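Please, structure for the following, as tokens.
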Amino acid sequence: MSGAALGIEIVVVFFLALFLLHRYGDFKKQQRMVLFGTLLAWYLCFLIVFILPLDVSTTIYKQCIIDHGDHAQSPSPGPEITNQTTRNATVTPTASIPKVCHKPWSYIPNGIMPVFWRVVYWTSQCLTWLLLPFMQSYARSGGFSITGKIKTALIENAIYYGTYLFIFGSLLIYVAVHPQWHLSWYELQTIGITAANTWGLFLLVLLMGYGLVEIPRSYWEASRQGHLLIKTYFKAAKLMTEKADAEENLEDVMEEVRKVNESIKYNHPFRKYIDTILRKCPVEYQEKMGRNMDDYEDFDDKQNTYPSERSLVKLHKQVIYAVQRHNRTRVQWQILLDQAFHLEDVAKNETSTSRQFVHSFAPTEPATWVSRYIYTPTVEWYWECMMKQWFYRVLAVVLSLFSVAVVWSECTFFSTHPVLSLFAVFIQLAERDYNYLYIEMACFITIFFLCTCVYSTVFRIRVFNYYYLASHHQTDAYSLQFSGMLFCRLTPPLCLNFLGLIHMDSAISHQAKEQTAYTSIMGSMRVLSFIANGFYIYYPMLIVILCIATYFSLGTRCLNLLGFQQFMGDNEMTSDLIDEGRELLRRERRKRQRIEDGENRRREWRERYGQRDEAAARNRASISEMKETNYAETLSSNTNRQAKYSRSGSHSGRDCIELLQDAEPLDFNAEALTDDPLESNTNRHTGGRYLSMSSSQSRIFDDWNAVKKAEDRSGRHWVIMAATSRHDREMAINAKKKLSETTDPVERLRLQCLARGSAGIKGLGRAFRIMDDDNSRSLDIKEFMKGLNDYGVLMEKEEAMALFQIFDKDGSGQIDFDEFLITLRPPMSSARKEVIFQAFRKLDKTGDGVITIEDLRGVYNVKNHPKYQNGEWTEDQIFRKFLDTFDSPDDKDGKVTKEEFINYYSGVSASIESDVYFILMMKTAWKL
């Protein structure tokens, strides 16, 4: 068996690295150089982890020979208990029988391991410090030729490589001018290794501190199906936002490509570059752009201005990034939908009396023999509804105990008398009996757990869109190679840290013991004593603080304070996103159900009328399905794409139908409510649906961005209708685009307000009203400038003064506050204004021009509101929440004036083009 274990593990680790690369990378689309570099980096790092236990057992065997003389025997598959004392026992004068040292089954002959470690270590270091940075820049370059990509990569890494040369040259000069320093090449090599490992240990402790807490906690939370479902709702809301941003970014980039494609004709020298860019675009865009191009028009370099090669390289780079991000978010959305639907199915099946797992949707893949005979619906029910949660809980407890042992050992591994490191105790107990199989298994489990804590953190962390490892072949080339660099930098210090935990590193344990072959190639850390005796010993203790910070989610709370929305159970924004995600998934479930029903109808039609009428049946079923599902088009579809490449009539019709669906009255009747997350969505409740209240304006389906209706036994009701977030987002996007094009000061201010959503103009009015200290309802230039600044309007002083002069028509130095807001509002037809006035008069029961809680009290009943029933909100709180919708987010006084009401709906009106559509929605929502 000599060397056989080494060969087997080399092969197994290769396929493990290949499997992970296949999961995260894309063998068909990504460059071979990227895949090879990443595979080699991952493979070498995993090799170090898997082979190190064999090195430990071989070293212990060699130590046995040194301690007891040359009494070796052939390899023994198991332990043999002898009466020989350990090497630390005192020697008695009496004669003793020589110890027989049995070779481990995985013994590696002399001379193999040092060469193996040198090849693996130095190859991985060359990759991480030299080759992978260059390959990153090469793969990310938008160049159109190999020479151009190499040139770009060299320029981008000039500073990177220059820094290395400067440090190395400075070190050589410093050694040369100090004769008392007699550093050999071996010592210089050791200094370089120590520096690299020190940097790796710095990152290692940070990542491990997170993983030691987060991995057990993730399994514990996975055992709580309800918590996992809520977190999935939260992820759905965030992913939908990212998906919409990716689609918008792709649309912008495709618009740039379209312009360049139309300007550069077939015989232009740069046409080959355009063809390369077009091949990277999605197929539907390629077809549309191809139809729009006139291939037979010659170019004239004297009369037209054409983009430069550098700009085309930049555009090529943007296309690659935008397409990859769009594909990634689209795939992740489908995966998240499947996960969410499965969790909802689990919640529904938990109360099943048949004890058979029923899926909401039929599986897309055909049934296999495993699902027929082994993983049957009954087995699936017991696993998903009963056993899985207990299995995860037990696993979480075991991993938690392991994490505690790691933290304790990290803080005490430097103590050799007594031995406090738990892992050192376990290895030394097995070493007494030379139980090599136990030693190797203990070493492998320990180092595998450490690697899991570190590597899983590398796979989980996300640095904006700069670094992101996404499964299902959705990771870009830059992130793949960046992960390879991290692995190569983290694995060597991780292994040294493990050897320190089990007291196999003499630089830390200070014991005269046989060194592992891995430690021998690292050199003696005593060349830099302050690192060997200081940093390497005391810095790992920082892991205690990091574990505590992770346990209390301090990092998550800090990110949340900085504006990066994180999942926090006690946060109002988290509740808003959960409600938004629940609504998104409910809509997707209905859409998928309609698609499945359509397929079933077509199948029944074919079975009933045969293949002869298949074509006609498909047409009729498609028309029927379009009538049912046209209003529920996917929420992430981009309106700009339709505006550019299709007729606007169909787009507006679809929007009208969709928003009318959003405007379906929602009641607070107890009969219409359900706590079951899997309430049937195929049949609509007669009384409507309920969405929980929220103050967030950033949600896609905020309850003040939907229609609400509360109805008591006497039949009275109250309704509020606001803009759907989809239209709000489109309006904000269009406003931002137009902002860069317009030069009119009034229009620029109006667009900056509309870019903040429907409540933008209302908020500006509130800011100006605060500035009006004397209640004169007029503003001077000072108040005007301060109001713009407080509201965050980006406008130069000269532009603001010019804007003021436009409104100061009589030159008095004052502008009328009401006239200013009326002018700033987006133009509305008289019909729109009239329907808004009707809605206001319906709410203003007292007729004093101000809507207050007293106007609502006694007229509208909130006793059926779920938050009133459970005691979370009082009647006044519910009414106040209603009124706050129309108030400025920064100053809510519980009073809604006619001016505030109109300002609010002027923003809503700006997001809806059709007068008929706007009036119909208002009348439907307010029952006018």
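DSSP finds 36 helices and ten strands in the chain. The two ends are 88 Å apart (CA to CA).
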